[in-house]
Amino acid sequence: MEELAARRGAEAEEVIRIRGLRKRYGDVAAVDGVDLTVYRGEIFGILGPNGAGKTTTLEMVEGLRRPDEGEIEVAGYDAVRESGRLKGIIGVQLQTTALFDYLSVEETLALFSDLYGVGGSRRERVLRLLEMVSLAEKGRERVSRLSGGQQQRLSIALALVNDPQVVFLDEPTTGLDPQARRNLWEMVREIRAQGRTVVLTTHYMEEAEELCDRVAVMDHGRVLVCDTPLSLIRSLEVDATVLVTVDGRPDGGLERLPGVRGVERSGGDVRLRTADVQETIIGLMRLASERGVRLRNLTVQSANLEDVFISYTGRSLRD
Ligand SMILES: Nc1ncnc2c1ncn2[C@@H]1O[C@H](COP(=O)(O)OP(=O)(O)OP(=O)(O)O)[C@@H](O)[C@H]1O
Question: Which positions carry the signal peptide feature in this UniProt record (predicted)?
Answer without folding.
Answer: none
